Predict the 3D structure of the following.
Amino acid sequence: MDASKVNVAIRRLLILIEIVLCMLLIVSCSAGQPDSKATATAQSLAKGTALYGQYCMSCHGGSTGGSLTDIPPPHNANGHTWHHPDQQLKDIILNGLDLSTDSQKMPAFKDKLSNSDVLNILEYIKTWWTPEQRQFQAAATKQITDYENGK
């Protein structure tokens, strides 16, 4: 088996492990409480994990590693994705991003991913951030939402 096939197999195994860990975390946090929101979150995280593995992992990596200046950026706590509001992240995912170099173009996924898919991916990515990073990013998202709603 060549090295590229081994790397793909390892990535798939890591994705599977992350799905199981996310599910266990959600189930343990909501044990004994029939909560439709927790079920929706568990389903959303599972979908986001699978979609991230299919469309994002090969360029952006997983939950560890990387640095703030890497291109393409990691989406974990070491990267800068958490600096951007959901609206901007959604736009980049759906419409792509061209940094004016041949090797630095992110393809558009609007023909492959629905709005719901993008939100599931973002929910999954956010599990990698620190509480402070999630709070900062939520505030940035709220600020844009308030502006868009005329508040």
Q: What stands out?
A: Confidence is low (pLDDT under 50) at residues 30-38. Strands lie at 97-98, 105-106. The helical segments are 3-29, 36-55, 57-60, 86-95, 115-126, 131-148.
